[in-house]
Design brief:
Length: about 450
Amino acid sequence: MSELTAGIKVSIQENTSSQKFLDSRSDNQEFIEYQTYSLDVALGEIQGIAAIHIDAQGAEPKILKGMQKLLANNPEVTIHMVFSGENIQAQGVDPKLFVYGLLIQGFSLAKYENNYQLKAVSESELLSSSSVNLIFKKIINGKVVEPKSKEEENPLWKQIIPVENRTEIKPRSDFNYYHPEIPNPQKQGGVLHGPESQQKVFHGLIQLGIDVEDYKIDVDDYRKYFKAARYAEDFPDYYSFNLPEKALEHYIAAKLLQLNHKDIYIDIASQHSPTPTIYNRLFGVNPYLQDLDYPQGLHGNMIGGDAANMAVPDGFASKMALHCSFEHFENNSDMGFIREVSRVLKPGGAICILPLYMFDEYAIQTDPAVSIPQEVKFDDDATVYCAYGWGNRHGRFYDPDHLLSRVCNNLNGMNIKVYRIVNAKQVDQSCYVQFAALIQKPSQEKFFSANKNMLTILDY
């Protein structure tokens, strides 16, 4: 197989364990001419191909070049490749650029071992090892594509899920490549916002005069909420890989917002979230669902279009929340949204944002395999963390200064309080929420009880 239909000469040599089939040496060699074909010519029209194994002694770039139609017709295909940087280099192809090209096409990368365990693979390992067993899986719409049926299921694909979605195995690459398409300062890998960074952020907020305090989750009360919400029974397919974190976000937002039966509640960036249904059943709210993917305008209880320009009148809602979505608001849309909140909220209303992703430097995390083909623009003053395998185009991490300039300075008279979540790991080790923000619009009457843990729940 090759990238085109042509004749090639193949040498006849004694076979050894280190033999390269494509060898440029000519001394004492006999050659036989063969016809080559591309996979697009041979199989390009076929659909439903689940896996392709390539072990071609350095000819992998040519084979991949000749199978673009096949890949387009089979977006769910898994590519298993025995990768040798030395052999690829010998064929006049830069192995680093070859792998980069696959990543830019939207493939997630990991290496696999004989026991089917997937692990991260580094640039140095790829370029220095005699061979590495690699597996590539296409990312579409922010996640690795799943097989259509059990018959197509490959035992390896389940392991290849964007890194934030698994805890026991985290395949990803720290493939070190500078991306000229991203003009910002770049760092490889994801944003490591651990306890040390959390502490720096906490003190930075205090120094800027931003209201901040610790929030301790009542774990027993959370478990009561989780049981009453009936995630497993009513929403079995919702975030099955990390349900404790998502449910915890819903719980904390409900606690901070003090939801009740008088509330008109908007779930921002709702998409397929069960939150409006749960909040309606447990707290009696009148829920509305907003998402960019919904039809433009107000249709029943669905609000379609830009969250920074909602098709609702002034003072429409009393409560709003964003669960793991504010970080995806690109360019200046985060500032525009905060200004829109001040218009849409009733006096005395409030919005909860969580997780409020914060770090000790202003950063945006991206998967270059997703963001570069889609030509995503990044803030000029942000460091861009290139996290292959993450599967998302944009995730903003505020430092205290940028929270002040981008959020606090656009409150239009509203008040903000930041909560540091101190015991999320007590709920489940997979939980990662560190900060939440509660923004309130002042009213003549006191809207919230001084005890933020008071909560009216209809049926738990």
